Amino acid sequence: MWFEGISGQVGLGRIVRVGNPTEGLAERLTSAEREANSHEHDMSEFERERIDLEHRVNRMEAELENLRQRRLEAYARWWNARDDRDRALHLCRRLRRRIDRLRRRGGGA
């Protein structure tokens, strides 16, 4: 575990230091502080990256919403054009039938 040996006691796998025990603890403290500062630096870089990604995600989500809206509008325009086409084709069929009836009656050339 990361906190193993903090008490300064010698256990299995520990090297017995000869001399002033406070020097060993001071070295370990310095090393632990250096490691903590290194992690703090890494954390600040990761936080900057996270914030940047958050902004990018927000921009992309806004763009996606805009594209979805444009897609719906394009579909609505297509649907309206289809309806207009179908009405025009229906009118063409009716007019052709009327012309054909008039021709059969002998009313046209």
Please describe what this structure looks like:
The protein has 109 residues and is mainly alpha-helical. Helices cover 78% and strands 0% of the residues. It has one helix spanning 21-105. It is rod-shaped and about 130 Å long. The termini are far apart. The mean pLDDT is 88.
Compile the SSE list and pairings.
Layout: H1 21-105
List keywords for this structure.
mainly alpha, 109 residues
The total count of strands amounts to 0
Helix content: over 70%
The best one-word shape is rod-shaped
Describe the largest sheet.
none
- Gap from first CA to last CA: 104 Å
Strand content: under 5%
Please trace the helix and strand order, writing H or E for each element: H
Q: What would you report as the Rg, rounded to the nearest angstrom?
A: 41 Å
Structural class estimated from helices and strands: mainly alpha
Low-pLDDT residue spans: none
Number of helices: 1
Whole-number average pLDDT?
A: 88
How would you briefly describe this protein structure?
The chain has 109 residues and is mainly alpha-helical.
